[in-house]
Amino acid sequence: MPAVLKKISCLLQSGIIEVGNSEVGNKVAIGTFWSIFLNVASRCLGLISILVLTRLITPYDLGVYAAAAIIIELVTILTEVGIYPVLIHRKNPSIRFYQTAWTIQVIRGVLIFLIVQLVVEYFIHLYTDDDAIRDVIQVISITLLINGFSSIYLVDFQKKMDFKSLAKFQMTCRFIGFFTTIISAYILQSFWALVIGGIVAAAARLLLSHIYAFGPHRFTLKSSNELLGVSRWMLVHEISSFISLKADTVLITRFL
User: DSSP characters for 202-232?
Assistant: First the structure.
């Protein structure tokens, strides 16, 4: 819900929508419904996943994946450039603007993948002495690379407040990841099942994003100055959010 309200506020401030417009009011109501549905469905799917996985793999396996996922999330946040909020806020962005955003997204995905591969060996000794976590981080970072090539036109679902299509897209990807993880866990009975599920979900997102949100993509940086102008503020926001929401998890994972 907070994410939905944030996007709606952004649209209101930009003048894209007007409060008095009944059509917009209907879109807001429908969008809120689908956002609530997506949130509830995702949490239910997550709960079912945990209940099933605890029967198939050990708490240690879940802990290894959780520790690796926290580190990957931290790296992702520290490299956040705020592309989507800029695209949502901008009225009628040009194709070149979209393509510049996609290029930056790809470059970021490649860079953070390489950074993880290069520094994980040094960082892991500060965080834990478990080599399994290092191996999982190195493999699961492939998802960062894959996500970088996803269609940038997915942002149009949010710009147009088409949360129904966005919910269908996200739930399809999550169901694919869910069933892949469960099947892999039944066969492997280790944390690698979660890694495989994450990579397959990322691959499904890449493929489906270009089907659900088809559009021309090519490499260009002509609008990069405008796009990156607000990145530092997005970075501050994301880091503060991560600290407020995940700091306890990071510390617990580090010591336990």
Answer: HHHHHHHHHHHT--------TTHHHHHTTHH
- Please count the CA atoms within 13 angstroms of the CA of 117 that sit on its side-chain side: 12
The label of the residue with tokens 């981080």 reads 137
Helix axes 163-188, 22-56, angle to 10 degrees: 0
Q: How far apart are CA 214 and CA 221, in angstroms?
A: 20
Q: Is the pLDDT of residue 89 over 90?
A: no
Structure token pair of residue 167? 């919910």
Mean pLDDT of the 60-73 span: 84
Query: 136 and 72 in contact (C-beta within 8 Å)?
Result: no
Residues 6+ apart with CB under 8 A from 191: 57, 61, 62, 64, 65, 132, 136
Burial code (b: 16+ CB inside 10 Å, e: under 16) for 121-141 equals: eebbeebbeeebbbbbbbebb
